């Protein structure tokens, strides 16, 4: 290579560009978990950064279920679900998930991102159209790209914009995709109106309820159940590593739709199944979610404390959210990072969220509330925010 030429693979330059834009991410090595408290480098931190909304990740019933299941099933599924990876534990979990959300059938995936990244291409392809909310999660966005369908991005939660696009669309098939609770804003999609449009324009509606399952709806049955939605045009997807406290994801819908997805979703067909140990632990989680309603009541109390707080720094804006995701929008990457560091120095871990995860100019602190938080934990955080913003 000539001395004055540069390789296209200059990773160092790319990393320096990330540093200059204050966009490089770092990992923390967590040494121990205790509810909302984590130990990092020998230091105990009060964390507002995880998605363990119901505080189940260390629940004794789940831990015991995992121990017993490991003794029975071992720790690996050994193959894809369509070979020999689908155990009796998986079968029972799928039956219980479907009953929990009030839909005919469910299909369990080993993780949430590949679930959506595989579901969208299974449902849409060349000649079809995918309609994606502007703030959809990356897994839905990537799934739309992989589908090779025409992708139309409609304005966030804008039903009229979506209706105009559907009206003008001449594609063979139409698929509407949306988060139910948007992960960085905590805003909630207008699911009733979206389903009405799906029925009006011969479309399917795929809802990603990663941040609503276990938290919203009767008994924690999720956002679709909260809206009373039942339709053969509804496909309901949710992850199980957040409020459920374990791992994996599922999609639920009509029996024929779920059978079709099992036959066509590449991220299901060609991936090794999650261990049966995980499936048994999730079955225990569903029982706790149903039985321990005080956890959702605690979350509502904490959300109310944040919404009722009157002393935010003047240059900060609290996003409009009635969910455990509470965004404090500061604007610049530098301001968000500095606020995160100051809170970190006080033993509080609140992550700074920057582009491309959120739009340019909307860097923020993302407060993630959990039933594992005591009200005094949140008061401590609110006092600290007042100090650093003063």
General description of the model:
It is a single chain. The chain is of the alpha/beta class and 390 residues long. The chain folds into two domains: 25-54 and 293-389, Aspartate Aminotransferase, domain 1 (Alpha-Beta Complex), CATH 3.90.1150; 61-291, Type I PLP-dependent aspartate aminotransferase-like (Major domain) (Aspartate Aminotransferase, domain 2, 3-Layer(aba) Sandwich), CATH 3.40.640.10. It has helices spanning 11-20, 60-73, 81-85, 88-101, 112-123, 138-147, 159-168, 191-200, 223-226, 255-264, 266-269, 276-291, 294-308, 333-345, 375-389, and strands at 30-34, 37-40, 43-47, 105-109, 129-133, 150-154, 174-179, 203-208, 234-239, 249-253, 317-318, 325-331, 348-349, 352-353, 363-368. The strands form three sheets. It has a seven-stranded mixed β-sheet, with helices on both faces. β8 (203-208), α9 (223-226) and β9 (234-239) form a beta-alpha-beta unit. The longest helix has 16 residues, at 276-291. The N and C termini lie far apart (56 Å).
Number of DSSP helical runs = 15
With strands numbered from the N-terminus, the spatial order across the biggest sheet is 4-10-9-8-7-5-6
In angstroms, what is the radius of gyration? 22 Å
Please write the string of helix (H) and strand (E) elements. HEEEHHHEHEHEHEHEHEEHHHHEEHEEEH
Uncertain spans: none
The computed structural class is alpha/beta
Span of the ends, CA to CA = 56 Å
Instruction: Find the CATH topology of the largest domain.
Output: Aspartate Aminotransferase, domain 2
What does the largest sheet look like?
A: 7 strands, mixed
- The helicity comes to 40-55%
**What percentage of the residues does DSSP assign to strands (E)?**
15-25%
Mean pLDDT: 95
CATH class membership of the largest domain: Alpha Beta
Strand elements, count: 15
Count of spatially separate domains: 2
